[in-house]
Write a structure and sequence with these properties.
Layout (H helix, E strand, L loop, with lengths): L1 E5 L4 H12 L8 E5 L3 H18 L4 E5 L2 H5 L4 E4 L5 H14 L11 H25 L4 E4 L4 H11 L5 E3 L3 H12 L8 E7 L2 E9 L2 E2 L1 H9 L8 H9 L2 E2 L3 H4 L10 H6 L6 H21 L13 H10 L3 E8 L12 E9 L2 E4 L7 H23 L2 H10 L1 H6 L2 H15 L5 H11 L1
Parallel strand pairs: 1-2, 1-4, 2-3, 4-5, 5-6
Antiparallel strand pairs: 7-8, 8-9, 8-10, 11-12, 12-13
Helix pairs in contact: 1-2, 1-13, 2-12, 4-5, 4-12, 4-17, 5-6, 5-14, 6-14, 14-15, 15-17
């Protein structure tokens, strides 16, 4: 069994996922192939992988590859966790919109930031999907890179690779938080979630058949601090609790980011991801130095799904995860072929999305405002249409609530120029035609 880490230079995330994988006795002899285009980060990832294996008493075969094709050859599982253009690309996605008066928080999923992160990442995703079809056609692509819905759709819509699932920890984290809020042990809770990644909702939240939402309502009513969270404001109006954090959720809707008083009331951290990105750079240097000194690094089981999926497919031990998959009727309320987040059964025969036939109309309506941007961005890449980039920006809730049409056009033009060669060549050529 061969597991490939693409973008392994995200060393802390590599450590967490590899620690999860090697924690399963049946997976401790796997072949682990690490790939990153940054040789310094790749070397650090290899050192991290060897320390992790040693600490867990595992004996995987670990290899490091600067060339992606060599890493992919013969793979059974490919874990993708790249960040194309790195910190510099992130800064452009924040600093240029800020000059136009457009505020963002995370900018990695929707909005101007999500659109242009997709454009930068699209050549990588399409090449990865095509290379997998050639070099490891039976492998599963486990994608952790955002924008989740856009990138997964690009792979199954634009390459022969169809075994792709996007993985996130929003559902796990949110249900744990809710269980704590209502003072019920997490293992006693049952739940159902569905929607789109970063805009899914907890449709059922129960213990032994008891609806726990009334308990949550009581807790919120008595806690002024909870009432100042964006996701709680959405829950109280829509009737179902959203799976994504408030700082994410704030920039997916038109009602928050343009208003100073709403940002203050809901304590929205504008430009939050810049701070996180800077912290990640510092964390990489810290871990690199600790590895060079031979220090032992803490390893603990995470709540990520990758290892659970691999274990179930390899051993036949069944599991349930929440995955982002092609909508082949599994969530009928949302557009066909869009990428939706639903429960999935996993066993030796593969990953099987569960149909969610009943989905509240107000949630589907909100999701469609999200999906509009996703679909137009995907079409922009697959059809080489720069005008669809502008269309996606025009229909993005936060952008549309903040900027005029002329400002949106000018912003897209400037970001296209700023990202330069990171943008797919066909889109750069199409943009030049628009400008002429």
């Amino acid at each position: 069994m061969k597991i490939v880490f693409v973008g392994a230079g995200s060393v802390v995330f590599t450590r967490n996922l590899l620690g999860d994988i090697l924690d399963y006795p049946e997976l401790r002899g796997a072949e682990i192939a690490l790939h990153d285009i940054d040789t310094d980060r790749l070397a650090t990832a290899e050192a991290m992988a060897r320390v992790t294996a040693r600490e867990l008493g595992a004996s995987p075969r670990i290899t490091a590859h600067a060339e992606r094709r060599r890493a992919l050859d013969g793979a059974d599982y490919v874990i993708n966790m790249v960040q194309i253009a790195g910190h510099d690309g992130t800064l452009r996605d924040f600093e240029i919109p800020t000059r136009f008066g457009l505020r963002q928080t995370i900018a990695d999923t929707l909005g101007i930031g999500g659109i242009f992160r997709t454009l930068r990442t699209a050549p990588h995703m399409l090449a990865l999907g095509r290379e997998m079809a050639e070099l490891c056609p039976d492998a599963w692509l486990l994608n952790y890179t955002n924008p989740m819905a856009m990138l997964c759709w690009l792979v199954y819509g634009g390459t022969p690779t169809s075994k792709v699932v996007g993985l996130c920890h929003s559902v796990q984290a949110t249900t744990r938080d809710l269980a704590e809020l209502v003072d019920v042990p997490y293992d006693d809770v049952t739940f159902l979630s569905a929607g789109i990644n970063h805009q899914a909702f907890i449709l059922r939240f129960e213990r032994d058949g008891e609806d726990l939402y009334p308990r949550l309502d009581e807790r919120i009513a008595g806690d002024p601090d909870l009432q100042r969270r964006v996701r709680v404001a959405l829950y109280r109006r829509l009737g179902y609790f959203p799976t994504e954090s408030s700082e994410h959720a704030a920039e997916y809707v038109p009602w928050i980011m343009r208003h100073d008083d709403q940002i203050e009331h809901y304590r929205v951290p504008v430009d939050e991801y810049i701070r996180r990105s800077e912290e990640n750079l510092v964390e990489f240097e810290r871990v690199k130095a600790e590895l060079a000194r031979g220090e032992t690094l803490p390893i603990k089981r995470s709540n990520e799904y990758a290892a659970v999926i691999v274990n179930s497919m390899e051993t036949g031990e069944p599991s349930v995860i929440y995955g982002n998959v092609r909508n082949t009727g599994v969530l009928p309320a949302l557009p066909a072929d869009s990428c939706v987040e639903v429960p999935c059964l996993v066993d030796r025969s593969g990953l099987h999305p569960v149909v969610v036939p009943e989905y509240p109309a107000q949630l589907a309506a909100l999701n469609r405002t999200f999906t509009n941007v996703v679909e137009l961005t995907v079409r922009a890449v697959l059809e080489g249409r720069a005008d669809h980039v502008r269309h996606a920006a025009m229909l993005d809730p936060n952008t549309a609530a903040t900027l005029t049409l002329d400002e949106i056009d000018a912003l897209c033009d400037e970001l296209m120029r700023a990202h330069g060669d990171w943008i797919p060549e066909a889109l750069r050529a199409a943009e030049e035609l628009i400008e002429r």
